[in-house]
Write a structure and sequence with these properties.
With about 260 residues, this protein is α/β, with parallel strands linked by helices. The chain has helices spanning about 20-30, 40-55, 70-80, 105-130, 150-170, 190-205, 205-215, 225-235, and strands at about 10, 35-40, 60-65, 85-90, 135-140, 175-185, 250. The relative contact order is 0.15. The model has no long low-confidence stretch (mean pLDDT about 95).
């Protein structure tokens, strides 16, 4: 399927690894020029080199920095001031007990997972509407649909972003600018593996066993492949996806048991 976005420009946040990387690769495969950003310069450079090698006709711009800071956002927007596509993504805050979280903990979570996407949308959405094309995808979490008790910081921040987008996305779509969220369940990423290793150290159980046991609890019997996520993101960014907006789409292998 030709998604009709060849030659478009995209910003993909937190894209050196994991789901962000998969989204950048999928968009580049569609002929989109991508500006990728992450804090780790070495991993970012490796991803950029891989995308260039696979898609020599595509322009790949790498910007190392922290997208959750004003300086990080300014650097990315300087590199790509008029994106047609924006994929918002940032690592989630740590788990814990809400009794132990301070105001600073909450502000940090809100900055990363609510206010940063809003700031990037604010900086780009008017240009998208003027050009009559824009696709914004927020990578949030399956916890938006089914909150996880120890991830209260993430639950709160991502729910706030979801509520904000519910209103804004109905105002932009008349100008062919859509805003949607992708809600990942467990995907086979470095973050998932790292969590298993940490649990392994605490419980004295091999990380491989922990991962295998967890995969069995998913109706699909496995974890998601990041490539699957990237391809769905690219579809939402396609020219023919202009009638989908304000949606929160689960990619979780059927873990969420509800009907809505």
């Amino acid at each position: 399927m030709d998604l009709g976005i060849k030659g478009r420009r995209a910003i993909v946040c937190a894209s050196s690894k994991g789901l962000g990387r998969a989204c950048a690769i999928a968009l580049a495969n569609e002929g989109v020029d991508v500006t990728i950003t992450a804090r780790g310069a070495e991993a970012l450079a490796k991803t950029a080199a891989e995308i260039r090698a696979a898609n020599p006709a595509v322009t790949v711009t790498e910007v190392a920095g922290d997208i959750t800071t004003p300086e990080g956002r300014a650097a990315v927007l300087k590199a790509c001031p008029e994106p047609d596509i924006l994929v918002n993504n940032a690592g989630g805050p740590p788990p814990g007990d809400f009794r132990n979280w301070t105001r600073d903990d909450w502000i940090k979570a809100l900055d990363a997972n609510m206010l940063t996407p809003i700031e990037l949308i604010k900086a780009t959405v008017d240009g998208m509407m003027a050009r009559k094309f824009g696709r914004i995808v927020n990578i949030t979490s399956a916890a938006v649909k089914a909150p996880i008790d120890i991830l209260g910081l993430s639950n709160g921040a991502r729910a706030g972003l979801t509520g904000f987008i519910a209103g804004l996305s109905r105002k932009t779509v008349i100008n062919n600018v859509t805003i949607n969220a992708l809600l990942p369940g467990p995907f086979e990423t470095d973050r998932l593996i790292g969590t298993a290793k940490a649990e392994s150290a605490k419980r004295g159980i091999p990380a491989e066993q922990i991962l295998a046991d967890r995969a069995k609890t998913n109706p699909a019997g496995r974890f998601g492949d990041p490539e699957e996520f990237g391809l769905f993101c690219a579809f939402l960014c396609g020219a023919k996806a202009g009638y989908i907006t304000g949606q929160n789409i689960l990619l979780d292998g059927g873990s969420f048991p509800g009907t809505l």
